[in-house]
Structures are given as C-alpha cells and as structure tokens.
Amino acid sequence: MNREKKRGKVIRSKRQMKEAFKGYCFAMPWLIGFFVFTLYPLLSSLYYSFTNYSMSSSWNWIGLTNYRILLTQDSLFWKSVWNTLYYAFFSIPLGLVLGLGIAMLMNQKIKGIRLFRTLFYIPNVISIVATTMLWTWMFQTRYGVINQLLSLIGITGPAWLNDPTWSKPALIIMNCWNAGSSMVIYLAGLQGIPRTYYEAADIDGASAWRKFRNITIPLLSPTIFLNLITGIIGALQVFAQSLLLTEGGPDHSTTFYVYSMYEHAFTNRRMGYASAMGWMLLIVTLIITVLVFRFIGSKVYYETGEQ
Amino acid sequence: MKKKLMALMMVLAMIFSIAACGTEEETGGDVDSGDSTEGQSSEEEEAEQGEEEIKEGYEPTYGEVEIEFWCSSNTDACQELAERYMEEHPNVTINVLAVSFWDYESKLIPALAAETAPDIFQGGLGGAPGRASAEQIVNIQEALEIRGYDESKYLTTALEECKYEGDLYAMPFVTDTRLFYYNKDAFAEVGLDPEQPPKTWEEVYEYTKLLTTFDENGNVERLGFNSSLGNCWPWVIMWTYGAELFDGETPVFNCQETYDAAEMMKQIQDVYGYDNYLAFSEVASTMSYSPFISGELAMVIEMESFPNTIATYNPELNWGVATLPTVDGENYHSSWNGGQGLEFTNHGEDRLNAAIDFGLYLCSDEAQEYILERDSTFVCNLDAFAKGSEYHPEYGEQYWNAMEETAPYSKFIDNHLAYPGYNADIAVAWDYVMRGEKTCEEAFSEAEQHVIQETENYHQMNE
After folding, report:
1. Three-class DSSP category at A27
2. A263 → closest Cβ in B136, B421, B432
3. Fold match between domain B60-176+338-386 and domain B178-336+415-462
4. What ipTM does the predicted assembly reach?
5. Do the chains contact at A252 and B279, CB–CB below 8 Å?
6. How far apart are CA A64 and CA A27, in angstroms?
7. Which of B136, B461, B463 to mutate against chain A (most A CBs within 10 Å)?
8. How far apart are CA B420 and CA B438, in angstroms?
9. B231-268 in b/e burial notation, b at 16+ Cβ within 10 A?
10. How far is A157 from chain B (nearest CA, A)?
11. Residues 217-246 of B with CB under 8 A from A
C-alpha cells in the first residue's frame, strides 16, 4: 500500500515536473526579457545610484552622496521638479476632460462616426518627432497658425517657444493632441454602460446633465481612474517634447525632471547621479499613486459592489 | 547529486575563467610596442623596443586581422580610403560602419560603456580627454612614437585636444572653423565697398544699420547681422573680445570682456529688435534653411564648408568672406574649432596595432589630401591643408586667405571634465541679456555660480 502510494506520488511528481518544465519553456521568452531587460537594469540602476559611475570601467561606492547633492546642492533639480509638477497639474486634468469630451461625442450614433474616431486617434500613431515638427510650425511667433488665428480676434500671440512664461503652456497645449489615446479607453467604458439606466432616467424625466452626473460619471469612474493614474505616470515622465521642441529652454523653463536626468547622464556623464534621480522619480511616483489610490480610489464605483 | 553539483561548479568556473580572459583583453590600457607578448621579461621587451628605435621604421608583426571602424564625418571618403588600405594590406580587413552624425553619440556612448566600441572610431575633438579619464580609450603615445609620428605635421590646437595628462589618446583627423561671410551685392547696394568686410564689431553694428531693411509693416525684409543666426555660439563672440572661459577649473567668463561682447550683440540686435530676430530665427530653424543663402541676411558667421552649401542652393549668390571681426580689428583674432579625431579601444594586441596603422594612414598626406579634394574638409594634416587652394580654386583667393589667417587662431571650446555641460549655462545667460531680461552682471554671475556649484558637486561625488 505504502509502496503504491509512494510510486503514485513519484509518477504524479514527474508529470508535474514535465508540465512545469513545459510551462517555463513557454514563459521563457518573457522571463528572459524580464530578467535581462527589466529586473537587471532596474537593480543595477539602484546600485549605481550609490556610486559615482560615469560609464567608465571603475567607480566607487559613495553612499547617499548623490541623493544629498540632488536634494540640497542642485538648483536645477528643484526647478525641474517645479516644471514637471506645473506640467502635470495642468496637462492631466486637461487631458482627462478633453478625452472624455471627445469620447462622449464619438459615442453618438451618426454617419461616419468610425472615420471621426480614427481621425481623433491618428495623432497617437504618428511619430513624436513628426508631431513636434508640426507644432514647431504652429507655434511660430509671427507666421504660426495659432498666432495668426489669435490675431483675427485682436490678440497678439506670445513667442510660445521662446518666452519662459509661455513655453510650458505651449507644451501642455501640444499634449492635448494626444487626447485620442484616453478617448479610446473612455469610449470602451461608455459602451459598457447598460442603456437601461439611461432609459429609466428618461422615464423619470432626468435632464442630460443629470444623466451625465448620476449615471455616466459613476459608472465610468473606473475608466477615469485608470486614465488618471496613467496620466500621472506619463506626465511625471514627460521628456521627448522638451528635448525635441525646446531643448529644455528658454531659461530652463521646460527642463523637466527626466530631461534634467538625461542631461546629467549623457552630457555631464554622471550616470550614478542620474540613476539616483531615476529612483527619486520612482519613489515620488509611487507616493503620488498611493495617495491617489487612497483619496480618489475609494470614490471609484465598481458594479460588483466593491469600492 | 554531489557529482552533478561538482560538474556544475566546474562549468561555472570555466565560464568565469573564460570571461575573465575576455575582460582582461578588452579593457583599455597602454599600447605595447606592437609585438611584445605576455610572459616576456622586461629586459627582453626593452631590448626589443631599443631594436625598433634603432631600426628606424616600425614593422607590423600581425597576420590576418579584422578590425571595426565607425565614422560619422566624411563617411564616403573613409569608406574609399579603407578600400584602398585593404588593397595595399590584404591581411587587414576593415569593416566600416558609417553612422549619421546625429545618431553617432547615442550609439558610441553605450558601446564605450559596454566595452563593445570598435577598434578605431571617430570621436569629437575635445572629447578624448574625457574618454581617456574614464579609461574608455587607449593611450597611443608610445605606439605613435615607435611609428615615428611627427606631431609638427598636424594642427597644434587639434593635437592638444587629443592629449590627456600629456599623452596622446587620439590622432587629429579633420577639423572645422568659423568664418565671417557677407553678401557683396547687398554691400554694393547700400554703398559699402564689397571688398572691405568689417574688421571690428563696431563696424558690424554700423553696417547692420545700413544693411537692414524693413517692409511697410515694420517687419524686417533683410537683416544685417545677428550672432545667433548661422553657426555661432556666445563663446565665439566672447573670445573675439578677449574673454576666456576657464582658468583651469575655475570659471573666468564672468568678466568685463564678456559684458562688452554681449552688450555689443544686444546693440546690434536693437537695430531691428528682438521680435524681428525671433521671426527670422524661427522660420530659419523650422525650415532648416539659411537666410544668408536666400539673401535675407547680409552677414553671417558660418563654418568653413559653407561655400559648398551656397554652391548647392544658390550658386548665383555673390558672397565674400573674411576672418571674424574683433573688438579692435587687431587683437583677439579667434574662431571656434570642432572636428573629429581618431580614437582606439583595445580588443587584443594585433587588432589594436592594425587599427593604429590604419589610423596613421587616414592621417597621412595621401589620405588627407583625398579628403580635402573630395569633401573640401579642413583636414588636420597641415601639409595636405596647404594644398587647399590647389584643389579648390573655385572658392577664391579671399576664402583661402581667410582660412590661412584663421587657422592659427581658431581654438576649441574648453574641456571641463568636472562639468562638461557648462556651455548651456553660458547660452542661458546670453539669452537673458539678448531678451533684455537681465543685466550682463546678473546673468553671467548666476551662470558662473552654477558652474562653480556643479564643479563642487562633481568633486564631492569623486573625492
């Protein structure tokens, strides 16, 4: 009896091992990618953040020096933090509202709606370099289309990309161009709301605003929350626009956090320092995300009854 | 189980020992004389070195060898020269990789960090000391001495940029400089002598007043001069006033000469106003065109290769050229050099020696004359460069006179190992002054303080 049990256990174990082996084989491409291209660089950067690594073959452990300098002796660090928070503060709500507005419009049953949806999404599949070139034209002080339109209503447009006051708003406006990505997610959310709620509200004589406030917003809150979280992470990592459009200028007014990190890493060859900046960004992003989950996440309505 | 564990440990030990061999071979270091091998006693090595010095001629000892060469400048010429070299040296195979200038750094920097950089590559002149201090490239001083490298054949300023702690870590290959171009027809139109370009900045200011024209709306039709249009940076103008950027590691650019330079450029800009400059600048940068070539800018500072661009886009343009104006027309003749050197990494003795021999060929009279003739590039080999007017008489006597006059005064921007990005601080200070938002004292003091702080930060990280 015992022997059979033992034998049975061995057979079962072998089969399990085979299955496990096959499973790992199938998962191997991802596992290798994760360990080699994500986990290893991630942990390496954590190690380098405590060193004076400068892409040379030798480096020294310097403890918390990079972090100390970053917080107390780098004037551009705080400027870049301010620039990034300014950008995030305006671009996130603007992106959320605009994406939702477009999604509401694109949720109508009208002829050619698929074409409109495609048109609004197209900016997201265009290369950021091409988009930036386009906006450089549009933001030109004298001949740009934005200032030309403003002049039609008697407003003298600013030097968008060459005036420290207007350079960040210019990049925030440019970011609206990408509202199509959140629009698609909102659209999926909107189409998941049962029609019966709206029909019941119609019978009760609810106004369009009331339906929006009491049906659409609560039932769409998980989607809004998702877009908020991804928007926060994206905004804190804003980089390409400032690199391509303004090179951090004028007067460091568009030197965002990641741009500053890039400059330290590749211009000043302070890879250890830049790694420390990267980890600071990760910590701050985590804190903000946790706070958002704590204070806004509890207000999100899930149809399963969970909040 | 024990046996399996032992086998695994042995395999791991073998892997590590192989990896260790690779690392040892691939790390940078001084180049040996060419044929010294591990295990030889120092006496033997010295004796061999002595023999080579007496031999009066270096003889390569490697056999079949394959090397990698990366380039971003004069790429077609480099490819052709590699082909020629391989024909003459059938035992050497050179794999040339031409990379766009704009993508080059982003490819080279990680390769150097990962010790996978090619055997020989073009590196921006001025960057070699940084790479040498980071032990990313090889000290070639001894190897060049053995091969009888004659330093006096090369542009001194370029050669100095290749040195770190007194030793050569690169060979000067090609360089560039800035010249002052002007529109002769525009000069004649306003009654200026087309053969008399301005020699002082004061004259540039006076000429700008004459040459700048406006339309009925007050918008500029033709702009006289602006130092930011063309290929010029604040420090070039500062040099022509006698300002220097650093004394060792200490910034010294916050000085009266810098203030004078910035204020003069502001005075010139005030002839037409910042808004008009901006409109010009934005259109030119967006469309990637030169307002000088289109006839909308009368005077400009551009690179020495600019005549090629003019010939391509507006061959009818009647242009003249001179050295950069200075504060008094006499002192502080200056211009800004850039360019490429040839640098080396160590992937084994044979490959390194083959790469150095190929590098010497690229810097030889024959190769440098070929580059000059084909690309009309300012080559670092002075004997080859002296033949510029023979190869390119179409640029005119005035051009070659200006080149000859500029070459000895043309210099490289200071290499600040502790804070290489300092030039952005100078540019920001300069922009503040040009926009009239800060005085020179305020703007440049702030820039100076920031450079000092960043230098201190670097030393705290590396103490």
Report:
1. helix
2. B421
3. yes
4. 0.84
5. no
6. 38
7. B461
8. 25
9. bbbbbbbbbbbbbebbeeeebebbbebbbbbbebbbeb
10. 12
11. 219
Query: Which among B285, B286, B461 has CB closest to A66?
Result: B461
The verdict on A148 touching B (C-beta cutoff 8 Å) is no
> Could you give the count of Cα atoms lying within 13 Å of B137 in the half-sphere of its Cβ?
31
**In chain A, what residues touch B115 (CB-CB under 8 Å)?**
57
**Dist. CA A228–CA A231, nearest whole Å:** 5
Residues 6+ away with beta carbon under 8 Å from A77: A70, A71, A260, A277
Put simply, whether B278 touches A (Cβ < 8 Å) is yes
Q: Are B182 and B324 in contact (CB under 8 A)?
A: no
Contact across the interface for A272 and B112, Cβ inside 8 Å: no
Predicted TM-score of the model (pTM): 0.83
pLDDT tens track, chain B, 463 positions: 455 544 544 444 444 443 333 333 343 444 444 443 334 444 445 444 444 443 456 788 899 999 999 999 999 999 999 999 999 999 999 999 999 988 898 899 889 988 899 999 999 988 899 899 888 999 999 999 999 999 999 999 899 999 999 999 999 999 999 999 999 999 999 999 999 999 999 999 999 999 999 998 888 899 999 999 999 999 999 999 999 999 999 999 999 999 999 999 999 999 999 989 998 888 888 877 899 999 999 999 999 989 989 999 999 999 999 999 999 988 888 899 889 999 999 999 999 999 999 999 999 999 999 999 999 889 999 999 999 999 999 999 999 999 988 888 888 888 888 999 999 999 999 999 999 999 999 999 999 999 999 999 999 999 8
Question: Which CATH number is B60-176+338-386's, of 3.90.1150.10, 3.40.50.150, 3.40.50.300, 3.40.190.10?
Answer: 3.40.190.10
Residues of chain B neighbouring A248 (CB-CB closer than 8 A): 424
Nearest to B286 among A60, A137, A266 (CB): A137
Integer Cα distance of B45 and B36 in angstroms? 6
For chain B, the C-alpha Rg in angstroms (whole number) is: 26
B178-336+415-462 CATH, one of 3.90.79.10, 3.90.1150.200, 3.40.190.10, 3.30.1050.10: 3.40.190.10
Instruction: Name the CATH architecture for the domain at A71-299.
Output: Orthogonal Bundle (1.10)
Write down the residue that tokens 């085979």 correspond to. A18
User: d(Cα B6, Cα B53) in Å, to the nearest integer?
Assistant: 53
Helix axes A271-295, A217-236, angle to 10 degrees: 170
> Which residues of B are less than 8 Å from A73 in CB distance?
453, 456-457, 460
